[in-house]
Specification:
five-stranded antiparallel beta sheet; Jelly Rolls; alpha+beta
Length: about 240
């Protein structure tokens, strides 16, 4: 397994695992987008141990969970959501980071990320903010995502990283840049990929190398909308809290 978590016990308390499937003929999704199949089950002890980070794992490859208490406000008192989100950065006194923005998703959405050029959802994908080539994807910035609520949110995460996937679908990987299409090609070829679903209650978040790991968000099963705020940055291992 390629995903590495710094807090294994905390992970088991809020994580499920399931299979994936490809989107076909769904107007809201890219053709061939990778989606969770919905056959979720609890993560067992052995599986959680496989995802646990080994000593010496680079900081930039770690997945860590974060908790940030949110202010209690009545709706009529709430200021601009972007201003509120920017002020909730939990590491302001230690590690500066750029505020990327925030997005509000309705409840019960299977996945959340849309391609702004088409308006269709991407499913599991890899980011390319740093545009790093094969062999260097683990050197990119991690991304902090914080669920501002009011609804529950889930973090969806593939159990293979893009470099492992890339090696399988490109005979000469050193001369190409990894892309979401490579993850789709990998699954189309019938190769193994499972999806983790990590529950994020309001105030919960994660630090994740989103240029390295296929991922997305979800509000499936939730009745209320969820606003997520994002910061790309470089945080040392152990920055997250159980």
């Amino acid at each position: 397994m390629s995903s590495v978590f710094g807090q294994c016990e905390s992970l088991r308390e809020r994580c499920e695992i399931g299979s994936v499937q490809l989107s076909h003929g769904e107007a809201d999704y890219d053709e061939g987008a990778i989606l969770p199949a919905g056959d979720w089950r609890p993560l067992n002890v052995g599986e959680a141990q496989q995802f646990e980070a080994e000593p010496g794992t680079p900081d930039g490859a770690l997945i860590e969970l974060v908790r940030q208490p949110l202010p209690v406000m009545r709706p009529e008192e709430a200021p601009d959501i972007r201003t509120t989100a920017a002020a909730l950065y939990p590491f302001a006194d230690r590690w500066p980071a750029d505020f990327l923005g925030c997005v509000t998703d309705p409840g019960d959405e299977r996945t959340t990320t849309e391609d702004p050029a088409t308006g269709r959802r991407l499913g599991l994908h890899v980011d390319n903010w740093d545009r790093l080539p094969y062999g260097a994807r683990g050197d990119g910035r991690r991304r902090l995502c914080l669920n501002l609520g009011p609804g529950v949110r889930y973090f969806l995460l593939g159990d293979r990283d893009i470099e492992e996937i890339y090696q399988c679908v490109h005979p000469d990987p050193a001369h190409h840049y990894p892309h979401t299409d490579d993850v789709r090609r990998y699954v189309t070829q019938g190769r193994p990929l499972q999806c983790l679903r990590i529950r994020l209650d309001p105030g919960d978040g994660y630090l994740t190398p989103t240029e390295l790991l296929p991922h997305d968000g979800s509000t499936r099963g939730g009745e209320q909308p969820s606003t997520a705020a994002f910061w790309p940055g470089r945080w040392p291992g152990g920055a997250g809290t159980p």
